[in-house]
Amino acid sequence: MALLRLPEVMKRTGLGRSTVYAEVARRRFPSPVRLTARSVGWVESEVVDWIDQRIRDRIDMKHVNQLVGVDEAP
């Protein structure tokens, strides 16, 4: 099990610092683990799972759009 620091989380997700923390506050992104009084890290597998879920959601939405005949945006 590995912990990722914020720069790596941002790199892997494409999200900015404020978006990461906003999504954590909304409970739509994994919560960080406190490492010290001034540092946190994210569990790598939880971040990977979050990314994988975004991909599954996209695939599911494409399938729904095909079923209802909605053209995809370019």
Question: Which secondary structure elements does this structure contain, and how are they paired or packed?
Answer:
Blueprint: E1 3-4, H1 6-13, H2 17-25, E2 33-36, E3 39-43, H3 44-68
Antiparallel strand pairs: 1-3, 2-3
Q: Could you describe the 3D structure shown?
A:
The structure is a single chain. By secondary structure, the protein is an alpha+beta fold. It is 57% helix and 15% strand. It contains three helices and three strands. The chain has helices spanning 6-13, 17-25, 44-68, and strands at 3-4, 33-36, 39-43. The protein has a three-stranded antiparallel sheet with strand order 1-3-2. Strand 2 (33-36) and strand 3 form a beta hairpin. The longest helix is centred in the C-terminal third of the chain and has 25 residues, at 44-68. It is elongated. The termini are far apart. The mean pLDDT is 90.
The fraction of residues assigned to DSSP E strands is 5-15%
SSE order, one letter for each helix or strand = EHHEEH
Low-confidence stretches: none
By DSSP, the count of extended strands is: 3
Give the strand line-up of the largest sheet: 1-3-2
- Specify the structural class: alpha+beta
Gross morphology is: elongated
